[in-house]
# Entry
Amino acid sequence: MTNHRLTKTIAILALCGCLLGTRAWSAETNFIIQPAISTNLVGTTLMLSVLQLQDTNYPALAFRWFKDGALLSDTGKVTGSQTDTVLIEAAELENAGLYSVQVLLGSAQLAAPVSRVYLVEVPLVQGIRQENTGAGIRLVAEATGGLLSYQWTWQGQDMPGATARTLVFANAYTDANAGYYGVRVTNLVGEAVSAAPGFLLAKSAPSGTYEGLFYETAGVTYEASGFFQFTLTGSKRTFSGKLFMGQSRYSFSGKLSLTHEAATTILRKDGRALDLRFQLVTTNDDSRCYGTITDGVWDALFQGHLLYYTKANPTPLARNYTLALGNTNATATAPNGSGCARVVVSASGKVTLAGHTATGTSISQARGLSRSGTFPLYVVASHGRERILGWLKVTAQGSSSITGDNLVWTKAAGPEKLYSGGYSLALSAVGSPWPFGSAANLAFTDGIASFFAGDLFEEEVALGDFVRVRSKDGRAFNAKEAPERVQISIAKKTGLLKGSLRSPSTGKKMTIRGVAMPQQNRTRGYFLGPQASGNFTLVPTVGVP
# Structure
């Protein structure tokens, strides 16, 4: 009779709560376990208690505790498994889990609240288990400690995003690098790492020619910068090549370890040795090398890539391009103009570049393209005193078909007439396609030719001169009515331009060189006077910035 009256009372209260729009009280939500979530150290006593949120004058209640769905009993360290409080003394990792308790009134269950219990101790890495899956491989970290976080390492370096218990490579040859893999596990108590050196993954090294650059990260210097090229025989893991530093070149050779690491010594003419160390990175079928080179005084970053394309494997980037090496300098002690060049990418991935620096010095090089479209720029002029160094990237999309930032143009002091004191300038590359065998004229015939700095200085302040020019075909522009007498002609085959202007102050004739850039619908380059180099651009009259 009492149970029937209690059940009827609960039903009436619940109905009233619904009708009034308030949260209904129920026996199920009247009981909770304290604590609802807890993290405990291994070896401590675990205590869970049933808490009744409001007094309902229940007769005697009964309790039955469960762990992960299994009934608990008072055995060993467990006491109170049939009371409102259960104790587990000297708790161990296996005592972690989901605890629940049945709150019983006679044979009726009033509630079954739950509590999540975590147990932690100092982590321990027991090992790394290997599981092969056809062409793939799965590495599984075997570790204890509770609430573990994982960080996989390769050759001692953290692998970005590799933070699961398992490290999976769907294709071990293309997705993974040769080398030692390890794991670091952490929790609230501490940290542990897998035994050194780790799991060794070995594979053949990609054969072919590698090209790249080396320079100090703090700044390019003559003593610690240059270009390298070597050929690798993958089956033997042997390599040989040359290192270029200005007008000097040095041979080197060596052999990769099973982890694709190399260490070799390069002898120079002055007797000072260079120590070279690098690691091969071979994921995504885009093999690269990273390392350092030093003479004991300076340390330079050494990085390069495998030349990917061949006649049998042509590149989709093959075409003619025009390239401007942008310069934002505005002082009278260094060139102010932008260098210009023609770039030809062949189907086999060979990249030839020919043009001029902003002081009129001829530059040229032949390099190879990586799978990602990058190639090193390293040109030497003025008997080794002048160099341009940096990375360029060819792409089929975006607002520029060739890009490159942080290029460095340096020149040591010398006997040249212009800028004999030397300089070091940062350049930024901008490129445009120039189709094979046809004219890629600019899409305007009325433009503004602007000239900035160079010989246009007054009391150390750079001046700008703007001249309106016109064309019939978008290739030949002139301004005969202006005192500058600007004349510009764009070569149909290469996209390179030549021209001239008269100084508005002295009347002296100055040379213009640059490149037409249909992709950006403008030209960029330099004008060269008797005393200095200045910046030149040609843009449409409409929309002049």
